[in-house]
Amino acid sequence: MARGYDATNPEKSFDSDTCLLTGILARVPARTVSSISKCYLNSGYQVLRKIGGGSYSQVKEVSQGQHRFAVKVIDTTRVSDDFKGRFLPRELEILSRIDHRHIVNVLRIFKASEKVFIVMDLAEDGDLLCYIKKKKFLSDSRSRIYFLQIIDALNYLHGLDVAHRDLKCENILMKSSRHVKLADFGFSRPCSKDGRRVLSRTFCGSTFYASPEVLQGKAYNPKLYDVWSLGCILFIMLCGVMPFDDTDPKLQVKQQLCRNIAYPKTPVVSPEAKDLLRWMLEPDVLMRTSVPRILSHPWLSSKSGGDNNFLNSL
């Protein structure tokens, strides 16, 4: 029987007999189970409902005693060899390293049959996109509170020399109306190898949040790609719409290169926030800002004393 989560000692748990932290999935022995339900029961979890999913993975809400969790289930029989050989081991290795208050906490990783299970904290209030849709747009102060938490998480990742490469509102989970956490590290990767910076060449993430160099198929700096995507997230929070035409990729790139950011008439975005967005949504990668510079921007530093105190209290 697989070792379950101990609520009295809530630390990351990686089963020794199915350890995935070597980053080489092929070496992980498969556990023989008759069904996915039996695997959950053997692990001490009961399935409550399906939260979401895609072509090769599902996210389910499960319980163990009085505690509820989210479990990402990856079916390795449905993924490409490239995903199985590169992306999945990389994701699992990175998940084993990270520990931050504004990143979804992974409690356990194990493998059963041909499925990989990632057990993590449950985000009770859904994702940021759903929240914005309900509100239409967010106030300047509310956007700043969320942005401070997201940039705090991203600064931590970049400090570990890791880029997320799939920043979008759907991957920002709501723990409450004032707490958000970054999730989904399926496209994350280290940014250097043997001490040398490595450019990315794989198209990652969503077209709507993609920078012009990524949409044009150029080799790109993954950290600067994260900055662009985060700029899109900030714009959506403040305006409730995308910053560029998201129906035509060619027109989207043209607008990006021309710095034609489509601000709506309402709500009114403050000059300070527009200036920060201009820094982040800069098409020239040599001029685009970095996470450390974002942290010193006036929109965060001059008006957010209360927000910073709130952030430090979390």
TrEMBL record:
GO terms for molecular function: ATP binding; magnesium ion binding; tau-protein kinase activity. Keywords: ATP-binding, Developmental protein, Differentiation, Kinase, Magnesium, Metal-binding, Nucleotide-binding, Phosphoprotein, Serine/threonine-protein kinase, Spermatogenesis, Transferase, Ubl conjugation. It comes from the Eukaryota. Coiled coil: none annotated. Residues 45-300 form the Protein kinase domain. GO terms for cellular component: cytoplasm. Transmembrane segments: none annotated. ATP binds at K72. The keyword Nucleotidyltransferase does not apply. PANTHER family: MAP/MICROTUBULE AFFINITY-REGULATING KINASE (PTHR24346), TESTIS-SPECIFIC SERINE_THREONINE-PROTEIN KINASE 1 (PTHR24346:SF102). Belongs to the protein kinase superfamily. This is Testis-specific serine/threonine-protein kinase 3-like. It comes from Galendromus occidentalis. The lineage of its organism: Eukaryota, Metazoa, Ecdysozoa, Arthropoda, Chelicerata. The gene is LOC100901615.
